[in-house]
Specification:
heterodimer, A: mainly alpha, 3 helices, elongated, B: mainly alpha
């Protein structure tokens, strides 16, 4: 059993189940801050999926995409919290 | 040999991320969800990126990028979690009914969102030795 098949048949399904669970929280989420942290977690899991996929396909170029995605996740959370606080203050 | 190490790191990382996802679905409260997800997801993502850094040893740039992403994740995840938790407290996210203590109640100025120590009303600059 090579590393590539192990990743394809064990690691990626685990991460897929995790993505589905987070997606359920995005649809249910009673408040907007729940959805914001669920989106943040979704993008963090996406970074992990991209990394594992780059190991599985042995193409190291995908790591760049993971880097940009991590940047965008941080910026998105900061922008959401800034404008939600501003809206609450009026 | 290196494959076993990479597989172990990947497995621990994926299980940590799965625990984070179960936590965000099952926890009863926003603040508990926040405290579960940020730590576990940072650990899981960091371990997956570490396994990528071990997998491409002949390309120095990939290892550097993976280590840079790990550094960036551990640097920014607590900051983002603190900011979104502060915002959730301001906009009045309700707490779980089992919460028995709220140390921040009445400490924040409603107008300026400035944190006071709660000793004297309206004076939250500094307190000499009390």
């Amino acid at each position: 059993m090579t590393l590539s098949t192990y990743i394809d048949y064990v690691i990626l399904p685990i991460l897929g189940v995790a993505l589905l669970l987070v997606l359920v929280r995005i649809f249910k989420g009673p408040t907007i801050v729940d959805r914001v942290i669920a989106l943040d977690l979704l993008i963090t899991i996406g970074v992990g999926v991209i990394t594992v996929f780059s190991i599985s396909t042995q193409k190291s170029t995908f790591i760049d995409v993971a880097m940009i995605l991590a940047l965008i996740a941080f910026l998105g959370t900061i922008a959401f919290s800034y404008y939600l606080e501003k809206r609450g203050r009026k | 040999m290196i494959d076993i190490l990479i597989g172990t790191l990947c497995t621990i990382g994926a299980v940590a991320i799965l625990i984070a996802a179960i936590g965000i679905l099952r926890m009863p409260d926003f603040y508990l969800r926040l405290s579960v997800t940020v730590k576990a997801a940072t650990l899981g993502g960091g371990l997956l990126l570490l396994s990528a850094a071990f997998y491409f040893p002949e390309e120095v740039s990939v290892t550097t990028k993976a280590v840079a992403i790990i550094f960036f994740l551990t640097l920014t995840a607590p900051v983002a979690a603190h900011l979104i938790g502060r915002t959730a407290y301001f906009i009045g996210t309700e707490k779980w009914k089992g919460t028995i203590r709220d140390d921040l109640a009445g400490m924040y100025d409603k107008e300026t969102h400035q944190l006071g120590s709660g000793d004297n009303e309206g004076d939250n600059i500094s307190h000499p030795s009390s």
